[in-house]
Amino acid sequence: MKTYTDIRTLEFLLFEVLGMEEILKLPRFQDHDTESVTMLINAVKDFSDKELYPYFREMDEHPAHYEDGEIIVHPQVKKCIRESGAMGLIAAPFDYDQGGMQLPGTLVHASAWIQECANNHLPNYHGLTQAAANLISHFGNTHLKETYFPRMLTGEWTGTMCLTEPQAGSSLSDITTTAIPENDHYLIQGQKIFISGGDFKGAENVVHLLLARIKGAPPGVKGISLFVVPKYRPDQGTEMTFNDVNTIGDFQKMGQKGYCTTHLSFGDEGDCRGWLVGAPHQGLKYMFLMMNEARIAVGRGAAAITMAAYQASLAYAKERPQGRLLGDTGKKNPEEQQTLIINHPDVKRMLLMQKAVAEGALQLVLLSAKFQDLSVAHPEASEREKYKDLLDLLTPVTKTWPAEKGMKAVSNGLQVFGGYGYCTDFILQQYFRDIRIFSIYEGTTGIQSLDLLGRKIGMKDGKVVQALFELIDTTTARASEMETMNAYSLQLKEAVATAKEVVKHLTSFATKGEYELFTTPPCLWSFSAPV
C-alpha cells in the first residue's frame, strides 16, 4: 500500500466540507455525479501508484541535465505525458466540443494533487501543457486552435510559458525579446530563462507561449504581446521544420531535479517564427490567465508535498522504537522494551502540526478551485462576479500559505526522523529540498504580498475583502454552536479581528498615498490560528 497521500481526507473535504454536489448541479457539470467523481479519484490514485510514485526518488538521484545541446530527462517523462493524455487528464477541464471532459476545476485540482503527492516532478510537464493549451483556447485564432490545441491535449506536444529573461527576472516591464512582423507571422529574437519543461530529448514538439515586444511597441507592460512559438513549426501535411528555438543550457537545482528547467534562445539564425495570440500589446493581460491558474497550482503542489512528507513521517513514527515514556518506571532499564517514537509528546506535536498544515493547505486550494468553478459556471451573472472577486483575492494567499507553512511542516517532518531525516537513505530530505522552490515559483512570497495589498485588498473599495470576512464570520458562527468546535471558533474570531485591524490600519496609508508603508507590513503573513 502506497502511503504518500490521504484519499479519505480528500473525499471528506470534497463532499462533506466543500459540498461537491453543489458544483455538480451547475448546468456545465451536470453530466457528472458523486459516483463518477469517486471513480476518477480511484483511477488517478491507481495511475499514481504505478506510473508516478515508483520513479520519485529515482528522478532525484538521476536529474534532468544538459548534454550535447539537449536536455536529458528520465524515460518516464515521455511515457507519463502520453498516458496522461490518453486518460484525458490534460483535456479534463475543456469543453466537450474541444475534446475535453468538462470536469469541474475542483476535481481537476484534486486529481492533480493526488499525482503531486506521488511525484511532484512528473505531473508538472502535462500540467503546464494543459495551462498553455488553455491560453490558446481562450485567445488564439482558428488557425492556432486547429494546429496546436488538439495535439497538446493528447500529450503528443507539450507546452510552456516563456516570461523570464536574464536581465528582467520578475520585472516583466523590462523584457527585451523582440517580434518583427513578416507576412502572417513574426520573427522572434531573444532569450528566456527558468523555463520549466522548456525542452527535452524525446519531446515531439514543444509549444511555447512567449511574451515579446513587437518592434515599435510602447515601453513597459503596455507594449508586451503574446505569441505561440513552437520548437518545430508544422508545414504542409505531416512535415515539420525546425523553428530556430535553441536550448543553450539548463539549471541544476536544489530540488525538483526531475523537472527540467531550461535556458532558451530564440532566433539565433534569424528564422524563429511566432504567431500572435489575440490583439497586439495585450500579452500580459492574456498571460495572467495562465499565471493566476499557475499560482493556485503552485499552492496545490506545496500542499501535496506537505501531505506526502506527513505520511512518510507518520509511517516512520509508527515503526521506529526509541527510548521510553517519561512515566515508565523502567525508563532507565535497558532491558525494558523501547516505545515507538509516536508515543512521545513532542513527536505527536510535530506530527499534528504537519497534519494541520497539510489538510488546511489542501482545503485552501480546493476552496479556491470551487470559487473558480462558480465564477465561470454559475447561472447568475452577479454570483459569477462575486466568486471571481473572491478568487482574485484568495489567489496570492493560496499560492503563498501552503508554500510558507508547508516548508515549516516538512521541516518538522525531518525532525521526526532525527538524524536519519538529514540522510539520503530516507525521503524527508528530498521533500524538504523539493518544497523550497514553491515560495519562489510564479512570483515570490514578497511579490504575492504586493499583489494582495497593492491590488486585491482595495478591490471595489474594500468590499471584496469584507465579503471574505463575512464568509468566515458565517463559518465561525456555525462552529460556535458545536461544543467540540467552540474553542476553535473563538480562536478564529480573534485572528479575523486582528486581520481586520491590520487591514484598516494599512489602508489608512494607501488613502494618503504612502504606498511603500502600505505594501510592506512586517507581519501580515503571521495571522493564522495556532496549529
Structural commentary:
The protein contains 17 helices and 12 strands. It is α+β, with helices and mostly antiparallel strands and 531 residues long. The chain folds into 4 domains: 7-153, Orthogonal Bundle (Butyryl-Coa Dehydrogenase, subunit A, domain 1); 158-284, Butyryl-CoA Dehydrogenase, subunit A, domain 2 (Beta Barrel); 285-456, Butyryl-CoA Dehydrogenase, subunit A, domain 3; 457-531. α11 runs antiparallel to α12. The chain is globular. The two termini are 29 Å apart.
Brief rundown of the structure:
The protein has helices at residues 7-17, 20-24, 34-51, 56-61, 76-87, 105-118, 123-139, 142-147, 149-153, 283-317, 345-377, 381-416, 428-435, 445-456, 463-480, 486-511, 515-518, and strands at 65-67, 70-72, 158-162, 178-182, 185-196, 206-214, 224-230, 232-234, 240-242, 245-250, 261-266, 273-276. It is α+β, with helices and mostly antiparallel strands.
